[in-house]
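User: Run a structure prediction on this.
Assistant: Running it now.
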Amino acid sequence: MKLNSLVPNAHYDMEHGTPKTIEKDNDGSFLYRYNITPEMGVPEGEEGERQVGFSCREIRVWEHPTKAVLKKAVIRSVIDETEEFDLVNSYNKDAMGIKKDAEAVAEYKEYLQFTEDVDAMLVSDLSNITI
């Protein structure tokens, strides 16, 4: 569940440059893009590899893109409420001695680290943007 290992779900060509981190769409929603990285490739008819665009993770939110709104959207794009509830319950069972499960503890710890990584990313991204 590492933030930087999430598979990109959006790709942009070089024509418009680096995609904006947050962009208001014409339908009133906002697009939030993170993990924006150069996309390399060998264009047709060329021999050498070069940057051909950008890839990133992209989510759409319908509320004003505050840190809380974006955090929830990023987390829910990776894990739904039912899975999160199961993670917490499994961890609590271990912590209370009801059912020992070292894997549940490790998974919950990984989830908590993921939420911290999302927080840090959002603080960084939102500090550079005026919405």
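The radius of gyration is 18 Å.
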